Amino acid sequence: MKLKIFLVVFVISALSIVGQTASDYFPEQTGYKWYFESVPLDSLNNPINSLKFFSIDSFTVVTPYFGRTANLVLTKTGAQSTINFQPYLDSLFYSFETTSGFEYFDPVNVDTLLGNIDTTLGINFINFFNSLKGWYSYYRFASANNVEYQVFKKDTAVTINSISATLRFELIGKKLTDEAITTAIGTFTCKKFVLEVRLSYLFLNIFPIKMFGVEDTLWFASDNWKVKSYMPTTKIDLSYLGFPAFNIPGLETNITTPITNVDDEDGFIRDFKLYQNYPNPFNPSTKISWQSPVSGWQTLKVFDVLGNKVATLVDEYKPAGNYEVEFNPVSIIKHPASGIYFYQLKVDNFVQSRKMVLLK
């Protein structure tokens, strides 16, 4: 009987551990897209709806990146009216190892915080934090609830108002109790984490005294990854060091349904548009979409970096409308090479080209 009870407990425990596998919370297939709506917060953490903006993240490819197998997510941010037409300009890298979710740290991702500190304290923290670039275990799914863990730390000696001091920069993580939340794409029981960017003064170069911290709370849904984040406005008061107080603005971000451009809500196509292919970079295939306000003979061709035509995807008469085609180099080009390609749309007198990247 005791053996049976032990086996039951063991199985339940094993299933619980399996359920904490970090990769379970990230989409399995490339091509997945996240659409986000973000609202800045004022000093009282009230939303400033007039400053609302949107983001689109795209799970593009699984690729080696600085020693780890990484899920590359391209991201872009802009107004609702333009976000679909903008190119992806930034990248995020995620990697998973059993119960840990890794993220590649780049100071550019905390440039708002560092820029505020640089401006106020007169210390070039951005150059300092470039030395921290690398992979870190941000999200520890098997961690005990409400117990802090250190993601990384960095100490540096600085001089402030002729006084030498040692400061410590840390990223502190903590897993909170699971929480059920309702989003625009459904209701999920989420893993919940808080990440705190913390700056401390090292008294006697040994004992850290916290100067301030900026917290970002994140919710992760199974197979969806991040569906919500909330960073309250943080007031920084360093008057005891002779510096003026300042605020680091807060931000609330929620996942939303695919973003519709305001100009296109009535369904009327006003002009030509050739959109950026998705995903980009891509492997093995990508989709190219465009719209034409007029009927006419339409051609869509692909060229290599030397200007040689490698494929004709469309060459026919089409009525006005929205269109999309898939480009799979392997099925068209013999031994396609990795690198830059261009695709060009021609409709009557309209000609436009865009760049895309094949990764192999």
Structural overview:
The protein has 360 residues and is mostly beta strands. It has 2 domains: 22-255, YmcC-like fold, CATH 2.40.360; 269-358, Sandwich (Immunoglobulin-like), CATH 2.60.40. The protein has helices at 2-19, 111-121, 125-129, 329-332, and strands spanning 33-41, 53-65, 68-78, 90-97, 100-105, 134-140, 148-160, 163-183, 186-203, 207-221, 225-231, 234-236, 246-248, 250-255, 273-274, 286-292, 296-304, 309-318, 321-327, 339-347, 350-358. The longest helix has 18 residues, at 2-19. The chain starts with a helix and ends with a strand. Mean pLDDT is 83; it is low at 1-19 and 263-267.
Per CATH, the architecture of the largest domain is Beta Barrel
N-to-C CA distance:
56 Å
Number of strands: 21
CATH overall fold name of the largest domain: YmcC-like fold
Regarding CATH, which class of the largest domain? Mainly Beta
- Percent helix, as a range, is 10-25%
Q: Averaged pLDDT, please?
A: 83
Order of helices and strands: HEEEEEHHEEEEEEEEEEEEEEHEE
Q: Classify the secondary structure makeup into a structural class.
A: mainly beta
Q: What strand line-up does the widest sheet have?
A: 6-5-4-3-2-1-14-11-10-9-8-7
Strand count, sense and barrel status of the largest sheet are: 12 strands, antiparallel
Shape: elongated
Radius of gyration: 25 Å
Count of helices?
A: 4
Uncertain regions spanning at least 5 consecutive residues: 1-19, 263-267
Q: What is the domain total for the residues?
A: 2
Please state roughly what percent of the residues sit in beta strands, choosing from under 5%, 5-15%, 15-25%, 25-35%, 35-45% or over 45%.
over 45%
